[in-house]
Write a structure and sequence with these properties.
The chain is built from two helices and six strands, in the order βββαβαββ. The longest helix has 16 residues. 18% of the residues are buried.
């Protein structure tokens, strides 16, 4: 397992041999639903092209409920396309 920080509030973990990766983030001032959606889409595109990633789990910690419709973002961005799947979870 490898973990590295992408920014002050983001980290990524890869489980070698399991073809799964996780990305985590925390909402904050300046990172609302629109910005969060953009960041998650960028993550999905990046991981989808990675040859050893078949599953991406994105966890967003939203302790102050800054995202007004978390289930909508989860539904919009969670998907399975061929041999690549994405699960987005937004939780307080």
């Amino acid at each position: 397992m490898t973990t590295f920080a992408r920014s002050r509030h983001e980290s990524t973990t890869s489980w070698y041999g399991h073809e799964a990766n996780s990305a985590s983030d925390e909402t904050r001032q300046g990172l609302g639903a629109k910005e969060l959606g953009t960041e998650l889409i960028e993550d999905i595109v990046r991981y989808k092209t990675h040859p050893s990633c078949k599953q991406l789990i994105c966890f967003v910690y939203d302790p102050e409920s800054r995202v007004a419709n978390p289930r909508g973002i989860e539904s919009d961005l969670s998907r399975s396309e061929g041999d690549f799947s994405v699960k987005v979870i937004i939780a307080p």
